[in-house]
């Protein structure tokens, strides 16, 4: 089985595949990672959000410490400030949500441009690129390889070839190559299957056998009827 | 030019632009006395104008305040040419209207002629909605009140220049002012739903049934029309009434904040039932002094909190302020602030008349 190890197409495809799998495995951490990315719009909004929240907590504590009846004016002023701050906080929160959504969209586009589209382009443009050729004779029986490459005529001509004293192997059999598209598909299937097996065998908790239900049997043992 | 805020309602009493004046506050703080006093003072200050005082409180007491019976039709106050009163219960009126709409709809097989609010209620169909949309109940009630005022004007043949509302102490009286926003959101959602499931909804509703979107649009337009008047500070103002106690002040603050959120003009607070004990040497008692001390504490807080408000300090009288004469005497302190050292006698004069 010949493998063209100097083929850059295969290496690039493998890298894309590995990155995709990595992103798939780490999907639960993406939100956390994204929050740590230094987007200026999110950073500013988050800073303001934290400051406002701190201010609100400070005021709430202050208001809890003073007597509303003895310091009514102060208490009310604090309440007014609190209402104002809470409104501001909710608008910052909205701003933050919008900024995060915008950044998510940006990252999505980035992923599309850097990963998905090039990978798709690679598959489309280089999909028929032969990764390796299947060996001519030793993968399948001679007869089968002959039918595969020459068609059913090979089978029909086989007795004639034998009568003419020619060996069956003398017939030239065309080389069968495995294209990048097929190879990637097969590779992904293998990885997915291994992934599934590992998950089922080691990571998923065992399902307990359900207890068989004991049905109550109502039998009529007596034909007496009680009267009121 | 003196920019300090006067501690009286002179500017409101002599105002030539105000068409709607709301008087509100929690129960038992003297709302009715205050609204009667404002109405009387306005009527006295501008005799060429016609005034209407409406109680929308189900527990009506305008009749008790003036000592004569008023009903749901406007009637002039005896002794005053330009002040009329009426007592209506908007929610009860709305219920009557709804019941009538239902019966008319049943009688005409759903194709009866209808107009205005009854059309809006359409066979009582919208009654289901009134409980679920915040402010819609108040809006429908208020529209019923406005319609009633219009009918009165038609019947009496004269129009009212200013209407003074003695509102119910339930709060949320003017909650309907935020209704256009609520309805806009609701209609937007409705648009989405009817866009997706329109034919299905129509088949469920049946032919000739409720055109909810259309009705809500109509309601929104009506409320927006009222809102444009009520949020104009030249036309409308709200006078808060309270007493100098913690809970009353707390509720007043909440009311003011709520009104501000509706973009309503609110710049006057009447503080009722003040004892002014240090000037009341003749009938002074320890309890009055202690209570006055507490009231003064809250008055200071009011002054600090509402610097840009007209804060009117009204005395606690020895008896109930009932009858036109007593109300006239008491109400003059709204126009010119009460001076305990000079005006103290009025407190006991009122008692003698009761």
UniProtKB/TrEMBL annotation, chain A:
It is found in: Endoplasmic reticulum membrane; Golgi apparatus membrane. Coiled coil: none annotated. Pfam families: CHD5 (PF04420). GO terms for cellular component: endoplasmic reticulum membrane; GET complex; Golgi membrane. It comes from the Eukaryota. Its main location: endoplasmic reticulum. InterPro entries: Get1, Get1_fungi, Helix_hairpin_bin_sf. The keyword Transmembrane applies. Residues 195-228 are cytoplasmic. It is a multi-pass membrane protein. Keywords: Coiled coil, Endoplasmic reticulum, ER-Golgi transport, Golgi apparatus, Membrane, Transmembrane, Transmembrane helix, Transport. GO terms for biological process: tail-anchored membrane protein insertion into ER membrane; vesicle-mediated transport. The chain crosses the membrane at residues 6-27. Residues 1-6 are lumenal. One of its GO terms (molecular function) is protein-membrane adaptor activity. Belongs to the WRB/GET1 family. Required for the post-translational delivery of tail-anchored (TA) proteins to the endoplasmic reticulum. Together with GET2, acts as a membrane receptor for soluble GET3, which recognizes and selectively binds the transmembrane domain of TA proteins in the cytosol. The GET complex cooperates with the HDEL receptor ERD2 to mediate the ATP-dependent retrieval of resident ER proteins that contain a C-terminal H-D-E-L retention signal from the Golgi to the ER. Component of the Golgi to ER traffic (GET) complex, which is composed of GET1, GET2 and GET3. Within the complex, GET1 and GET2 form a heterotetramer which is stabilized by phosphatidylinositol binding and which binds to the GET3 homodimer. This is Golgi to ER traffic protein 1.
UniProtKB/TrEMBL annotation, chain B:
The active site is at residue 57. GO terms for biological process: tail-anchored membrane protein insertion into ER membrane. InterPro entries: ArsA/GET3_ATPase-like, ATPase_ArsA/GET3, ATPase_ArsA/GET3_euk, P-loop_NTPase. SUPFAM superfamilies: P-loop containing nucleoside triphosphate hydrolases (SSF52540). Its main location: cytoplasm. It comes from the Eukaryota. Gene3D superfamilies: P-loop containing nucleotide triphosphate hydrolases. One of its GO terms (cellular component) is Golgi apparatus. Residues 18-335 form the ArsA/GET3 Anion-transporting ATPase-like domain. Zn(2+) binds at residues 285, 288. Belongs to the arsA ATPase family. NCBIfam families: GET3_arsA_TRC40 (TIGR00345). ATPase required for the post-translational delivery of tail-anchored (TA) proteins to the endoplasmic reticulum. Recognizes and selectively binds the transmembrane domain of TA proteins in the cytosol. This complex then targets to the endoplasmic reticulum by membrane-bound receptors GET1 and GET2, where the tail-anchored protein is released for insertion. This process is regulated by ATP binding and hydrolysis. ATP binding drives the homodimer towards the closed dimer state, facilitating recognition of newly synthesized TA membrane proteins. ATP hydrolysis is required for insertion. PANTHER family: ARSENICAL PUMP-DRIVING ATPASE ARSENITE-TRANSLOCATING ATPASE, ATPASE GET3. This is ArsA/GET3 Anion-transporting ATPase-like domain-containing protein. It comes from Zygotorulaspora mrakii.
